[in-house]
Specification:
5 strands; 4 helices; 35% helix; 20% strand; globular; 5-stranded parallel β-sheet; alpha/beta
Amino acid sequence: MEKKKILIFEDEWPTIRGSFEMANIYAFEGILDFDVKPKSQDASFDDWSNQYLAVFVDITLAKNTRLDGYSILKKIKEENLISLDRVFVLTGNSKLPDKLKEIGLNPKDFQIIYKPLGFDELAKYLRVILHE
């Protein structure tokens, strides 16, 4: 079966890696391939719609740079890099919807997943994208 690529912007990958790997093994029989970017500067911002099944953005990514998680979300929306229903925001901050509104983004445009992240919850979101 063909691998399905998932792009993940996460500067603390070791803390959530297990959830992604467990979801991949138990829910998707290992067909997911994770492209992890610990720094936003490591990414190419070309059209992602044909390259990635989904994109996960850690909102606290790269706190000391101009291209943080919020900036990545704005770039995705403004440049139409991938359909917004395939973009997931990872956060531990319950005030995230307010912050998105503050910077001009509609929180309803994105699927927000709160940490800690369980593999079963993650699998549920990915099943929708995979149409399973």
